[in-house]
Design a protein that fits this description.
This protein is α/β, with parallel strands linked by helices. It has a domain of 121 residues: 3-Layer(aba) Sandwich (Trna Endonuclease, Chain: A, domain 1), CATH 3.40.1350. It is 69% helix and 19% strand. The protein has 5 helices and 8 strands. The strands form 2 sheets. A 6-stranded mixed β-sheet has the order 1-2-3-5-7-8, with helices on both faces. Strands 4-6 form a two-stranded parallel sheet. β1 and β2 form a beta hairpin. α1 packs across α2. The radius of gyration is 70 Å and the shape is rod-shaped.
């Protein structure tokens, strides 16, 4: 170490003696307070270690800040998800409320339908009773109509037995011997006729087979003519040399029906007189 005297002599070239003494004294004091080389080396190592530690702390701080930033982002995503869930929960609650209201309306509608169904069942019961009553009434009416039809038919047949001989007598000189309903059995099958008139025309035996209907139809004409053909031979065997004549008596017959009758050599009489004859 440089001595105080040497330092003072060097400083006197630039400073006054008193200044050189002061500066030299301060220099010596400061030198005394300085660390040694080893101490400096240790201090330097400590500083380096401190720097390394500081650098590590800085890196850790950077990682911490990055982690904090990641956590902040995760927190933000969590908050966003929570907000989305809150919105979804709100929509769910709203949907539940709507379903509740719809359920209430459905229950009310079911209750209304139940009441309506009860009213319908009551009406059906009343209708069933009415239908049953009408059924019985219809049966009674059918019996009455059947009775009236039978009465009308019987009256028409009785009238035919009076009117037909008159018309045939006026037109052909028919002389009546008997008139009434008859049945003939041919090959084991029975054929019944509404009216059978037996008599003569110009002395020749004539058997008039009559079909008496209020309204004469084509199908009835064909069926009756077939029946006449079946019994004709049996009648002629009983009355040799006689004549079997089909005749229709009624109130109405369509033009085509009248043509069918005359086309098969049959007679047609309405109450007012002979309408058609072959």
């Amino acid at each position: 170490m440089v001595s105080l005297t040497e330092i003072r002599s060097r400083l006197q070239s630039a400073f006054t003696p008193s200044q050189a003494d002061l500066i030299a004294s301060l220099h010596v004091e400061m030198h005394d307070q300085l660390v040694t080389r080893n101490d400096f080396a240790e201090l330097r190592g400590a500083v380096e270690r401190l720097a390394d530690s500081q650098q590590g702390l800085a890196a850790a701080q950077q990682r911490t800040e990055q982690r904090v930033e990641e956590l902040a982002a995760a927190q933000q995503r969590t908050e966003q998800r929570v907000e989305e869930l809150a919105v979804a929960q709100q929509r769910t609650e709203q949907r539940v409320e709507e379903l509740t209201v719809a359920q209430q309306r459905t229950e009310q509608r079911v209750e209304e339908l139940t009441h309506s169904m009860r009213r319908v069942e009551h009406v059906v019961t009343e209708l069933t009773t009415t239908v049953n009553t009408l059924g019985h009434s219809m049966k009674d009416l059918a019996k009455q109509v059947g009775g009236l039809a039978a009465t009308a038919g019987g009256n028409l047949e009785a009238y035919a037995c009076e009117r037909i001989p008159e018309v045939l007598g006026e037109r052909f000189g028919f002389v009546l011997d008997s008139c009434g309903s008859e049945s003939f059995v041919v090959d084991g099958k029975e054929f019944e006729f509404d009216a059978v008139l037996r008599g003569t025309i110009a002395g020749r035996p004539v058997v008039v087979l009559c079909e008496v209907k209020t309204n004469i139809s084509e199908s009835e004409v064909r069926g009756f003519l077939r029946a006449v053909d079946r019994v004709r031979s049996a009648i002629l065997q009983a009355s040799p040399g006689g004549q079997v004549q089909p005749l229709f008596f009624g109130y109405r017959a369509a033009v085509v029906t009248q043509r069918l009758i005359t086309g098969n050599a049959a007679w047609l009489i309405f109450p007012r007189g002979l309408v058609a004859a072959a």
